[in-house]
Design brief:
The protein is an alpha+beta fold. It contains 22 helices and 19 strands. Helices cover 47% and strands 18% of the residues.
Length: 627
């Protein structure tokens, strides 16, 4: 998951520059993630502009909120820092500071009339009759936590940035010669002869003598080294376990229902289908066709897009830019294009779940769970105080667990990856990462303080015994060494045989002539291109090599258990006129990629004009917050 998130975060620089619509800017709140650092310290400079920790704090929290909308609500601030969102936030701030200084240098000024006209033109701020609605405007102010004055200042700043960037970002369409040629290059399909040779099919391996095994053993100690193991004992206190033993009577439930009548109201929820495009004209065409047919899914499929369902949306969980438009739709209605920081949204309303008060029977489970949770929290808090006192007094973990009714978990030997000595997972290992970090961070016989996993579980870890990492004795693993030796010998001979086959193919021999050989599989690949055509049986790491091959070229690749020999047999050109959907995709990609590349170049130019300095030691301390 972290790698996926890192890849996604890399695209934020452009998004940070392109947030032109006023509704996507806010004065961001909460400032506790950098606790312990003076908030007014300068973390970076861009030309004459200083960027404080406090400013970075506020904007990081807003970026975190956006990331949770994309990656899920469970994303923590620490995880966000680990995948680079904090660093991306600072780079976005530096980029905006450079833009604002260039705006001042160029003398770009936005009059009040332009600000008011822009606000009046926003579909999110107009009622059903198309008139500017002040109530919607003030609702937007509430959502973004901005005063009207601050909102107008921010809007003026956004418009000035847009005016500066328009010449390099406003690319509505590209010449057909560009899109056609790029489509031809990306769509060109390659078909290969694929010969696969299994390593274990090599039968003419010799039997190693004792000296060969001993030499192999000493040359490859990593293959035969046992990791460090630790025997540990855990004492676990769980709020959920405590709650299971708590009973709640019907009278208590009825009283809670009466006391919380105002809270037992469900907001209206809406299910929608959504398509996000980067081209406003295409979004308008899609909205028009989908509106006429009342079928966004079918209309999107025609132009090569898939709809994304978004269910159970409320006014608090939907993107702020979409709120007014989506909650003004009737059942089945398709919206006009709605602009956000992500692009142009076309939305179809598929279901409305009215809000209202839950009846007693529907609320019983929720109320009972809340009462149990509250009481369990009280019991757990009291037990934790007793646990801390008992640990401070030096009582044994067994005695503490017995007196406080904690659950003891004993694991005889575990490595840093959480595996037992037989390579299996332990039957139970709560809060795995925290427990392993603690167990391997203390000495033999030491007992940890209470670990709070933030999910209602509290764990104490005792490291009972440490078995150091060591190379296993040859006599104890001689059979394993022989197996590894044989596998290595087979791999080397299979590699040599693959090179022989490759040489024969280059000399004109047919691939089918090797089909009868033991352990050999011969087939034709599926077409491969840069438009998504691929062969699942070939490693994606080979794609760059395959795309550079000429017809008749032969390459080989070593894989863990087999060898690949590939010969390019066909290169099929494609006609842009025969694939309107694919051509649309290429056009959309180029329309978004070219402005991104130009914007990156402009950003690098701004860093030269307005030199950037970053306090790396301060940034490192901010990255480590919460770890």
């Amino acid at each position: 998951m972290l790698q996926t998130m890192r890849h996604w975060a890399q695209h934020w620089f452009l998004k940070g520059l392109m947030l032109f619509l006023v509704i996507s800017f806010a004065i961001w709140g909460i400032g506790d993630i950098f606790r312990g650092n003076p908030l007014q310290r300068t973390v970076a400079k861009s030309g004459s502009v200083s960027l404080s920790v406090q400013a970075l704090d506020k904007q990081f929290e807003d970026e975190l909120a956006h990331a949770r909308q994309m990656l899920g609500p469970d994303l923590t601030a620490q995880q966000a820092r680990q995948i680079g969102i904090l660093d991306n936030t600072l780079q976005n701030m530096i980029a905006r500071a450079g833009l604002d200084q260039m705006i001042a240098k160029q003398g770009i000024d936005v009059p009040d009339s332009a600000v008011l006209d822009m606000l009046a033109a926003q579909p999110q701020l107009r009622d059903k009759d198309g008139k500017f609605n002040s109530d919607l405007f003030h609702r937007l102010l509430d959502q973004t936590h901005l005063s009207e004055h601050a909102f107008l200042i921010q809007t003026r700043q956004d418009l000035a940035r847009k005016q500066l960037l328009n010449p390099i970002t406003e690319i509505n369409s590209l010449p057909h010669t560009i899109t056609d040629n790029v489509y031809k290059a990306r769509g060109q399909k390659r078909i290969l002869e694929v010969i696969s040779l299994k390593n274990d099919s090599i039968s003419d391996t010799t039997t190693p003598d004792d000296k060969a095994l001993e030499d192999f053993y000493h040359k490859n100690p990593d293959k035969f080294t046992a990791p460090e193991y630790r025997a540990i004992t855990l004492a676990k206190l769980s709020t959920d376990d405590v709650a299971k033993d708590i009973a709640v009577s019907d009278d208590e439930l009825k009283k809670a229902y009466a006391d919380k009548a105002a809270e037992l109201t469900m907001p209206e929820q809406r299910d929608v289908l959504q398509v996000v495009l980067q081209d406003e004209v295409k979004a308008q065409d899609l909205a028009k066709e989908a509106g006429a047919s009342h079928d966004l899914k079918a209309a999107a499929k025609k132009i090569g897009y898939e709809v994304v369902p978004l269910n159970d949306l409320t006014e608090k969980t939907i993107l702020p830019e979409l709120t007014a438009s989506v909650f003004a739709l009737s059942q089945g209605q398709v919206s006009t294009p709605i602009k956000s920081s992500l692009g142009w949204h076309v939305v179809q309303l598929t279901k409305i779940t009215p809000g209202g008060k839950l009846d007693f029977d529907a609320a019983k489970q929720q109320l009972g769970d809340e009462i149990k949770r509250d009481r369990a929290t009280e019991v757990t808090t009291h037990t934790l105080n007793q646990l801390d006192d008992a640990l401070a007094a030096g009582h044994s973990l067994e005695d503490i667990a017995d007196s406080l009714r904690l659950r003891l978990i004993k694991i005889p030997a575990i490595d840093t990856a959480g595996k037992l000595s037989d390579g299996k997972d332990p039957q139970e290992l709560p809060s795995k990462d925290d427990v392993l970090k603690t167990a391997f961070g203390q000495g033999s016989g030491e007992t940890s303080p209470v670990i709070d996993d933030r999910n209602g579980n509290f764990i104490v870890v005792r490291t009972d015994e440490i078995t150091p990492s060591q190379v296993r004795p040859l006599d104890a693993i001689k059979e394993q060494v022989a197996i590894e030796w044989r596998a290595g010998d087979q791999a080397k001979k299979a590699e040599d045989q693959a090179q022989t086959i490759a040489s024969s193919l280059r000399e004109g021999k047919t691939a089918s002539s090797f089909a009868a050989h033991s352990g050999v599989d011969v087939r034709l690949s599926k077409p491969i291109s840069l438009l998504g055509d691929s062969d699942p049986g070939l490693p994606t790491s080979l794609l760059p090599q395959i795309l550079l091959m000429k017809k008749g070229d032969v390459i080989t690749e070593k894989l863990p258990d087999h060898q690949l020999i590939l010969r390019l047999t066909e290169i099929d050109d494609v006609d842009p006129a025969s694939d309107e959907t694919g051509l649309h995709k290429v056009s959309d990609q180029l329309t978004s990629q070219i402005p991104a590349e130009l914007t990156d170049e402009f950003a690098r130019y701004l860093r030269i004009i307005f030199p950037v300095e970053i306090d790396q030691s301060l940034m490192e301390s901010l990255r480590q917050q919460g770890s």
